[in-house]
From TrEMBL:
One of its GO terms (cellular component) is plasma membrane. This is histidine kinase. GO terms for biological process: cellular response to phosphate starvation. Its EC number is 2.7.13.3.
Length: 342
């Protein structure tokens, strides 16, 4: 391949030759004039052509070549687009397109790395959460096997503890399956008109015994008439059970969990509020992450899979809405979301 130097010399030679040929047709033109004309045209032409080729063509092509080599090495660091000099020529436009492509690929690589890190953390969390109930049940069962003549009351107590650990494992596996199915779209949201009031009262009945054990009042306030929304009955029931149950679990003794139903223009605002210990501000952004717990020791005592709020977030998103959380330490926590009117 010709270098810009040799190509400029070749083109300058041709141009100088053509100029000298035309000059030779003029009268009174001797050899000395023709020679000087040829040499000066050749030198000046080669200098101008070399500068043009080297700066306008070859330098830009070399930059593109360097970028392509960087892409092959998976090095996506490029000059920011703002620093590019805007030129209306094909080489510059091609370079801009390449820069744009490389920037896109760099973002994709960053997302893949982020996803890989998230997968690793998720697998570590799942392994830990599965290990705890399995080891607990395993310990109780092996204790009974090692002591077959143990007192019947002790055997019963150990079996109950083993069963409780396995029940917790069952809840965890079901919650993991639910999250996975919602994320992959395996679970379809079947929106139908439903009245939220009877649903909330039904959930209050389900959780009444749990609330009474802490002397917590369950209260429904807000819109006087029917609260008709477009929603999936089973999934919204799951959302409300999770939120109300959390209010009871983490609420104070002799506390209160309130469900507000407020009418808006095109939707109903649903708010589940407790007067419990609240959540510190630094934990709020991560509250809907899988397995995230504000107080890990307290969460373990209260049970649960650590996936409840993550499931809630996914279900609400599947209803084309979003859930928000507001909390103040020692004042309580409030979750709220909107559902479209039926």
């Amino acid at each position: 391949m010709l270098s810009p130097r040799y190509l400029s010399l070749l083109l300058a030679f041709v141009i100088a030759g053509v100029c000298t040929s035309f000059l030779s047709f003029l009268p009174n033109t001797d050899f000395t004039i023709l020679f000087i004309s040829f040499i000066s045209s050749f030198i000046f032409g080669s200098a101008v052509i070399y500068f043009a080729l080297d700066n306008l063509v070859f330098k830009e092509v070399n930059k593109l070549y360097d970028r392509i080599k960087q892409i092959k090495k998976k090095n996506f660091s490029v000059i920011p687009r703002k620093q590019l000099i805007e030129k209306e020529n094909p080489i510059e436009l091609l370079k801009e397109e390449l820069n744009s492509y490389v920037t896109t690929k760099e973002d994709e690589v960053k997302e893949l790395k982020k996803a890989a890190k998230y997968r690793q953390e998720f697998l570590a969390d799942v392994s830990h959460e599965l290990k705890t109930p399995i080891f607990a049940a395993q310990g109780f069962v092996h204790t009974l096997l090692d002591n077959p003549e143990e007192d019947p009351e002790i055997r019963k107590r150990f079996l109950e503890k083993a069963a409780k650990s396995l029940d917790g494992l069952d809840i965890l596996v079901k919650d993991l399956l639910t999250v996975s199915q919602i994320e992959t779209g395996a679970i379809k949201i079947d929106k139908k008109a439903l009245d939220l009031k009877p649903l909330v009262l039904e959930i209050f009945e389900q959780l009444e015994a749990k609330a009474k054990s802490k002397n917590i009042e369950l209260k429904l306030i807000g819109h006087p008439g029917p609260v008709l929304v477009k929603a999936d009955y089973q999934r919204i029931s799951q959302v409300l059970v999770n939120l109300i149950d959390n209010g009871i679990k983490y609420g104070h003794q002799d506390g209160k969990v309130t469900v507000h139903l407020e009418e808006k223009k095109k939707a109903f605002l649903i708010m589940v509020k407790d007067n419990g210990p609240g959540v510190p501000a630094e934990h709020l952004p991560r509250l809907f992450e899988r397995f995230y717990r504000v107080d890990k020791s307290r969460a373990k005592l209260n049970g649960g899979s650590g996936l409840g709020l993550s499931i809630v977030k996914h279900i609400i998103q599947a209803h084309n809405s979003k859930i928000s959380v507001f909390s103040k330490v020692d004042k309580g926590t409030s979750f709220q979301f909107k559902l479209e009117k039926a």
